[in-house]
Amino acid sequence: MFKRVFQRSRRVKDEAESDDDTDPMVLKKKVEVKENSKVETDYTIHEVIGSGRFGEVCRCTEKATSKQFAAKYLKAGTEDERESVANEITIMKRLKHPRLLQLYDAYLFKDEYVLIVELITGGELFDRVIDENFDLTESKCEKFMTEICEGIEYIHSQNVLHLDLKPENILCLTPNGYRIKIIDFGLSRSNAANLRVMFGTPEFVSPEVLAFDPVGPPADMWSVGVICYVLLSGLSPFMGKRDADTYVNIARVNYSFNYSEFDEISTEAKDFVKQLLIKDPK
Questions:
Q1: Global confidence as pTM
Q2: 270 labelled ligand-binding
Q3: Cβ distance 29 to 20 under 8 Å?
Q4: From the candidates 19, 20, 131, 164, which is the catalytic residue?
């Protein structure tokens, strides 16, 4: 099955789903930060639909068009916070692709940024993994992986590294479909020689990040391999009882397919994961 995942000319998709899942206007829109301007001038803010380390996300409606979006609130009280959000905006402005969450507008007022992004209502890919009523077969996994790899291929073609890929940062466009958007570019960086980072999510971080070695596209592809393992089995390949145990497993590339969840998984799918979970790829 997985032989088609990296073939750009052959896409695996559900027949009921359309390629036109991103408004062309959103993809073409040039975004400039509107400083000293309140988001409420142009948008009606509705209920909170999410929250995280960054702040809250609210549903909103653009007054001029009546189109719905999501408003992501980000603190910018310190110089570090401002630089972090400015970097996220710069990265998102460069990434114009249907498989990536698109930035539509941006505001800075006093000590707070508000990013206006596409409103995605299908839930996190993580929700599919833990949903006992959703039968996540190898065939369905392949469809998700094709979508994810298409997005990552584009990100890397723009000389950008995501650096925090995980099921929670992949949104499904619909509750039952396979089309996705990669989100959260808060930790993303422009790819550069000798780029080193010391952040990420423990279960999905690559060995070179742990070792504070230079990182490149293989760091993201390692995370893609972990995501694929999780989708195929519902298990996390490196997770230990503590983060320290998880880091040791990652550093030693200590994982296994010797679980009943892999009994019906093809050799080809396992090989796909193996080709991504490689330490010190050259």
A1: 0.91
A2: no
A3: no
A4: 164
